Amino acid sequence: xxxxxxxxxxxxxxxxxxxxxxxxxxxxxxxxxxxxxxxxxxxxxxxxxxxxxxxxxxxxxxxxxxxxxxxxxxxxxxxxxxxxxxxxxxxxxxxxxxxxxxxxxxxxxxxxxxxxxxxxxxxxxxxxxxxxxxxxxxxxxxxxxxxxxxxxxxxxxxxxxxxxxxxxxxxxxxxxxxxxxxxxxxxxxxxxxxxxxxxxx
Length: 201
Fold this sequence. Notes:
- The chain is of the alpha/beta class.
- It has six helices and twelve strands.
- The mean pLDDT is 82.
């Protein structure tokens, strides 16, 4: 999606849309990556609260799993910042700080409720879900990131030739999916487009 938005942004740059009142305007596409938002819908914090209130168990996918977290206020500040930093076509990546062990998070939440982990509330490991990773990966080693005026935000831009090639491959991928090509072959096409996506066959 980032590559496609960058392609669209480069394609329409300089092509203003003229409205009836004579005003000119063009759409600017900017994408931003960040991790988990505390207290958002689907947040593990909210899940743990409910599980503790129900007497447990608190369910964790893997004993080594960790995630980075931001507050809603931090997310709002970051989004407002990239609207100032971006001119269209950028992909921004946020430095989320040190990841937090989900096991440690669960144990602290249990103790904050005046309970003892493993005694009053059990912790149960249920296994990783399909596609779930033990550690957050907001960017790959192959990604070229550049500093911005904001200390926690970096940006990345691809060449227009690479974006055009990606767009052509995406069109082929969509056509093949509509034709009913099997999932294994479609995933193989995706890997060819973006090798770092690391999707299992």
